[in-house]
Automatic annotation (TrEMBL):
Protein name (database record): Putative dehydrogenase
GO cellular component, as recorded: chloroplast
Function as written in the Swiss-Prot or TrEMBL entry: Catalyzes the NADPH-dependent reduction of glyoxylate to glycolate as well as succinic semialdehyde (SSA) to gamma-hydroxybutyrate in vitro. May function in redox homeostasis and play a role in oxidative stress tolerance by detoxifying glyoxylate and SSA generated in glycolate metabolism and GABA metabolism, respectively.
Catalyses which reaction(s): 4-hydroxybutanoate + NADP(+) = succinate semialdehyde + NADPH + H(+); glycolate + NADP(+) = glyoxylate + NADPH + H(+)
6-phosphogluconate dehydrogenase NADP-binding domain boundaries: 107-266
Naturally occurring in which organism (per UniProt): Handroanthus impetiginosus
Native organism taxonomy: Eukaryota, Viridiplantae, Streptophyta, Embryophyta, Tracheophyta
Length: 397
């Protein structure tokens, strides 16, 4: 907090000078800790907008700076995320809502506290939001309750007591059940509220949920994410949103707590489609990488060296460097469950079918993930798909 006040004084004294110092302070702070900096009131805001814009423009030459205007009452907000999740938000002290919490919808609901939902909800709580939670398996709520979350016994009660409710559920069936089923979120929805579904589902499912939520007068946004367990923990997700633009704007400060970027893609279904295309590519990449690792080993090469070679060339990808070393050791600590990757391939193939787009590579990859599931690997990380190839090879030899 001292840091943000130092920034504010500099704003007001000399807006041309501040950005370099701001970047330096934040870099130091970011490397020391991993917490959010919020509330940076501009102390003499006569030239607040001008100095802030100037500061943001100058600061962007030092770091990845993301100006976002969110709401008439705030001057502006920007996120600074170098290696760690750090956010700085600037507000006018003349503004009646100089408390950043006033920019955030009153109470936030979170439904579905699995690998992704738990850290996402946790980041909201750590950023100072009032959060209510529900999960089918209640014990998964306990760590969040101990951080200050309020437990509600059903999705309906979460939705009824919150302004904006997020859902992060396994698949289309669970997303529909939690939103539209008995004691589902829709039963607690009414005008003025919003439902943001971050689960990876197909467009038809998303439209069904949207229709049900909107029939209550509430707003709907689909917001599936790219990024896995670690980005969820670090507030570095990429949101692929579509639906009600006004809910997108209301939810933006929350998306910025949980993520590093956000895309607004228009009508409901477009966010789901974008997510499925991304995961279709990812699933095929992982299947192909698995084949390469095993082939290299079979011809007497060291697969660890293959990982190293790939990391230095044009086909390098963080996924190969992150997963490769443990795959070589036949270890698959779960970040993205294999069953969800197969679900995404299945849904992506359905999307392709709906527009008669050939996707032979993804279809082959899907078969491999199905084999992996039948080998009992559903809850392993999706990189365990390599085991399906080992099984096939063993069958043949
Ligand atoms: N893990 C990852 O890397 C990523 C996952 N995703 C997507 O995000 C979503 C969540 O993924 P993730 O957190 O990994 O999955 P998990 O399997 O860890 O969590 C799934 C969540 O859905 C709940 N759930 C499952 N079935 C039902 C049901 N019938 N009724 C009510 N709740 C149910 C689970 O409750 P319970 O605890 O009771 O089982 C749990 O809260 C999925 O759609 C996935 O594809 C997107 C990006 C990355
Ligand atoms: O849906 C899962 C995506 C995982 C990732 O983007 O790393």
């Amino acid at each position: 907090m001292n840091v943000s006040l130092a920034i504010c004084q500099e704003y007001t004294e000399n807006p041309n000078k501040i950005s370099e110092r701001m970047a330096k302070i934040l870099t130091v702070k970011a490397s020391c800790s991993n917490h959010y900096l919020t509330s940076a009131p501009i102390l003499s805001p006569s030239n607040g907008q001008a100095s802030l814009s100037k500061a943001m423009a100058l600061c962007s030459s030092f770091c990845h700076l993301k100006p976002i205007h969110f709401g008439a009452k705030s001057i502006s907000c920007f996120s600074f995320k170098p290696q760690f999740s750090v956010q700085v938000k600037a507000f006018s002290s003349q503004d009646s809502s100089s408390n950043p919490k006033d920019m955030i919808p009153g109470r936030i609901g979170f439904l579905g506290l699995g690998i992704m939902g738990s850290p996402m909800a946790q980041n909201l709580i750590k950023a100072g939001c009032d959060v209510s939670v529900w999960n089918r398996t209640k014990r998964k709520c306990d760590p969040l309750i101990s951080l200050g979350a309020k437990y509600e016994p059903s999705p309906e009660e979460v939705a009824a007591s919150c302004d904006v409710t997020f859902a992060m559920l396994a698949d289309p069936e669970s997303a529909v059940d939690v939103a539209c089923g008995k004691n589902g979120a829709a039963s607690g929805m009414s005008p003025g509220k919003g439902y943001v579904d971050a689960s990876t589902v197909d467009g038809a499912t998303s439209k069904l949920i949207s229709t049900k939520i909107k029939s209550t007068g509430a707003l709907f946004l689909e917001a599936p994410v790219s990024g896995s367990k670690k980005p969820a923990e670090d507030g570095q997700l990429i949101f692929l949103t579509a639906g009600d633009k006004s809910l997108y704007e209301t939810a933006a400060p929350l998306l910025d707590i949980m993520g590093k970027s956000r895309f607004y893609l228009g009508d409901v279904g477009n966010g789901a489609a974008m997510k499925l295309v991304v995961n279709m590519i990812m699933g095929s990449m992982m299947a192909s990488f698995s084949e390469g690792l095993l082939l290299s080993e079979k011809v007497g090469l060291d697969p660890s060296v293959l990982v190293e070679v790939i990391s230095q060339g044009a086909i390098s990808a963080p996924m190969y460097s992150m997963k490769g070393p443990s795959m070589v050791r036949s270890l698959y600590p779960t970040a993205f469950p294999l069953k969800h990757q197969q679900k995404d391939l299945r849904l992506a193939l359905g999307l392709a079918e709906s527009v008669s787009q050939p996707t032979p590579i993804a279809a082959a990859a899907n078969e491999l993930y199905k084999v992996a599931k039948s080998c009992g690997l559903s809850d392993e990380d999706f990189s365990a798909v390599i085991e399906a190839l080992k099984a096939k090879l063993e069958e043949r030899s």
